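Retry 2 of 3 after timeout on previous attempt. Resubmitting structure tokens to design endpoint.
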């Protein structure tokens, strides 16, 4: 399978992940085989993430969902695919959220949101803000939820208008509408319903079918609030029929709870009984204890209003049984979260160690072992980059070469170890120059050093040269083998010019080298001659 075929499969999976389950599963299986053969972490992370998504939303299977999600995060961290990693964290949060583990959910939502904002993934940020708003609704903080829904709408509109744009926008408008109803903002909720209706008119049949159920929840809530319960009858019948067909019905349990609570408050218990009957077989044993408890709490309220005494007792018994296992479920979510966190921490430490080792190797490759200054390899890179910047901006580039006067005599007199100490003292002065004057200083070889300073004229070159002369002389390193001083001194040659189109980097270095040679020739045995020459 070539790269173009892989990209095409990935696009099909992303486009159809929530539409066509059979083609999605087939494409994922094909891509998984390719990813395993190539040992491609990024591709494995992509496949496992979409398998997890598939087994959560399309064909619910919690065991497979958790296994695939763990594998996805492991490979996404290994490949540093932060784009999809944010989506994976969001899925971890959604899972914890639906299980009632709100604290864990909120932590993962924030982790996902941080990644989304770093990478400016507006669609992801929109989804996460909407999910946080949904969580806050469950906690009863509808005012703060509204702020998150507003942010979600803003984010989705900032993103690209992909094939999922209408779906994302409808989802957020639906949640905003439900939240407005909880705040008695009927007009705003009606505005959301109107916008959803308009968006569905522009959408294909798949989108219309997918969002008919959420639209009914909002529409019925609005009609109920206008005291026109009788006009809801047809909509309620349609709602019940759709609930019977919905595979992931537990995902609507919050909406079912809110609608049934409103129906009971408006003295319409009969539709509540039908809604509960439509979802009972799937929600009451969906494997998410929090949702099961939510269902039986609602059923208990309904049976109490309807006067079903025996059913009330049965409801209480079911609630008690699930309350016992509720603590185990929260513990399971905590263990999942701890497992993910431990895996992330372990990978982070491994990558951190690898990065430190790589940095050390790079430092060793670019650093002179004796003086700790950049070496000739680093100098080549810096000189090339500085030259190109100076040429592009038409600004002067200053290049200097410095060497120690009578250094051979110094080594002959005091020994090579003393010579190394002397070179380190020179390097210390060059480090000061770098810190105070913004120059780049490197060891060129032997007792020669190179200074590079961008946007520096002749005056700046003279200033740097004088600084080095004075600082090195202040070290007071005795040198009885010198013919020009009682202490170690240096000679310097500088080239200052604006690089032309035909100039090469080494042309400037050659000019500086000639200037240094001229200084050395003039100073030979003469203590009073200038130790610096600037050309250009």
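Retry 2 succeeded. Sequence:
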């Amino acid at each position: 399978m070539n790269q173009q075929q892989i990209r095409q499969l990935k696009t099909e999976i992303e486009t159809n992940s929530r539409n066509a389950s059979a083609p999605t599963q087939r494409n994922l299986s094909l891509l998984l085989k390719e990813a395993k053969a190539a040992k491609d972490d990024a591709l494995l992370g992509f496949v496992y993430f979409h398998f997890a998504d598939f087994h959560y939303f399309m064909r619910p299977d919690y065991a497979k969902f958790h296994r695939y999600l763990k594998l996805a995060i492991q490979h996404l961290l290994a490949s540093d695919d932060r784009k999809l990693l944010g989506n994976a964290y969001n899925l971890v949060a959604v899972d914890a959220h639906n299980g009632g583990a709100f604290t864990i959910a909120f932590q993962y939502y924030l982790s996902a949101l941080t990644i989304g904002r770093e990478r400016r993934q507006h669609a992801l940020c929109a989804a996460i803000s909407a999910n946080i708003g949904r969580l806050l609704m469950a906690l009863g903080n509808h005012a703060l939820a509204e702020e998150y829904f507003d942010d979600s709408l803003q984010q989705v509109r900032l993103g690209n208008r992909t094939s999922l744009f209408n779906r994302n926008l409808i989802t957020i408008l639906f949640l905003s509408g439900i939240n407005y109803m909880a705040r008695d903002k009927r007009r705003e909720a009606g505005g959301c319903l109107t916008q959803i209706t308009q968006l569905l008119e522009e959408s294909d049949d798949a989108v219309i079918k997918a969002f008919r159920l959420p639209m009914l929840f909002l529409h019925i809530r609005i009609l109920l609030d206008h005291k026109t319960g009788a006009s809801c009858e047809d909509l309620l019948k349609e709602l019940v029929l759709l609930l019977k067909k919905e595979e992931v019905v537990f995902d609507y349990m919050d909406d079912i709870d809110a609608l049934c609570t409103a129906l009971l408050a408006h003295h319409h218990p009969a539709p509540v009984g039908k809604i509960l009957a439509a979802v009972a077989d799937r929600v009451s044993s969906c494997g998410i204890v929090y949702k099961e408890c939510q269902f039986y709490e609602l059923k208990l309220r309904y049976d109490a209003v309807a006067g079903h005494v025996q059913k009330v007792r049965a409801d209480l018994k079911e609630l008690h049984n699930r309350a016992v296992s509720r603590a185990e479920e929260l513990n399971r979510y905590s263990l999942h979260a701890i497992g993910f966190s431990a895996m992330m921490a372990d990978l982070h430490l491994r990558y951190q160690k690898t990065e430190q080792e790589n940095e050390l190797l790079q430092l060793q490759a670019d650093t002179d072992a004796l003086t700790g200054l950049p070496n000739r390899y680093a100098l080549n890179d810096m000189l090339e980059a500085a030259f190109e910047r100076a040429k592009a901006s038409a600004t002067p580039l200053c290049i200097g070469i410095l060497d120690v006067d009578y250094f051979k005599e110094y080594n002959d007199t005091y020994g090579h170890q003393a010579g190394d100490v002397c070179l380190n003292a020179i390097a210390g002065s060059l480090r000061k120059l770098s810190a105070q004057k913004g120059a780049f200083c490197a060891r060129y070889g032997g007792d020669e050093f190179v200074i590079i300073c961008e946007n520096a004229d002749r005056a700046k070159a003279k200033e740097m040269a004088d600084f080095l002369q004075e600082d090195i002389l202040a070290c007071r390193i005795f040198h009885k083998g010198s013919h020009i001083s009682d202490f170690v001194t240096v000679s310097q040659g500088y080239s200052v010019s604006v690089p032309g189109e035909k100039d090469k980097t080494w042309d400037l270095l050659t000019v500086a080298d000639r200037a240094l040679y001229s200084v050395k020739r003039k100073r030979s045995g003469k203590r009073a001659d200038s130790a610096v020459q600037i050309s250009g």
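Attempt log closed. Residues 229-331 form one domain.
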